[in-house]
Amino acid sequence: MPLVSPAVASHPLRIPFIPVNILHSIEDLAGLKGPIVLAAGTFDGVHLGHQALIRRAMEEASACGGTAVVMTFDRHPASLLRPEKAPKLLTRNDVKTSLLSGMDVPALLLLEFTSDLAGVPARDFIASLVAACSPLQAFCVGRQWTFGKGGEGNVALLKELGAEWTFDVIRIDPVMAADLPISSTRIRKAIASGDFAESSACLGRPFILTGKVVSGAGLGSTIGFPTANLSVEGIQLPPDGVYAVRVHREGGVYPGVANIGVRPTVDPTSSKRTVEVHLFDWSEDLGGKELSLELVKFLRGEEKFSGLDALKGQIAKDCERARAILNY
Questions:
Q1: Interior angle at CA 162, CA 160 and CA 165, nearest 5
Q2: Is residue 48 domain-shared with residue 156, that is, in the same domain?
Q3: For position 217, what pLDDT does the model report?
Q4: Is 215 a domain residue?
Q5: Are residues 37 and 165 both part of a single domain?
Q6: How many Cβ atoms sit within 10 Å of the Cβ of residue 165?
Q7: Which residue positions in the chain have pLDDT lower than 70?
Q8: What is residue 8's predicted lDDT score, i.e. its pLDDT?
């Protein structure tokens, strides 16, 4: 049965999310009611700073009777340009879209970031946007936004082009939390260290880890604690260990425990980090479903036990403690 009220169960990260109007090419902008106000950025995490930028774009569009469009890429540019240094993501595209839907964003321009797009000179990139919009009214960007081949474009160049092509450039200053600027990098570091108070303060919501349920070894069922294994490749993970969790999925929010780590008791040679969750009093097959885990409390670090009986005993204790924490 659901853990929380229907109001909480309607969290913006629910699956499926409310669709936002998604555009996949710059040319698609021509089909929108002008003037167009673009909010440009990577928007990984859609944190409070991103939200402030997007809301400013929506305010500008409302004032001129036009349409606000969030412009971003289908991948982090570093994953193509500097894959060895590419950051782990806070939000996949579908989760990002869900969060934007929750903000009532009218349209999302989700561009495929390819080598060809990365090679477009900065001036040409902006020229293509100006040509597609009827007209382009304004750009809302963060102070460090860059664009064009080699990141040659910056806010200063954008303002020069705005003066030439008659669009406004609105630079949004960072939003602060605990006297420090909010950024996706800061949030990644907080999650990696398990500081969920910090990440929540910057995100404006609890940190939630989302993934699709994939096939596992089935060991959990044999010891009385069936688990759903999540595909979370490329996503920023918190420290290894066992957590009391709330599991958001279509129809409600449900309690459980999750393990993040390499499962040393059942696979001593593995170094691959996995995420698996056991939902209390649940028997439905979750294969292929999207689950979103809200990590409520860290229970213990991951341990290697002497055998499956010892592991089973500890999991039972973990579940008992999590039920008390989650008031279930």
A1: 110
A2: yes
A3: 58
A4: yes
A5: yes
A6: 14
A7: 1-19, 216-223
A8: 31
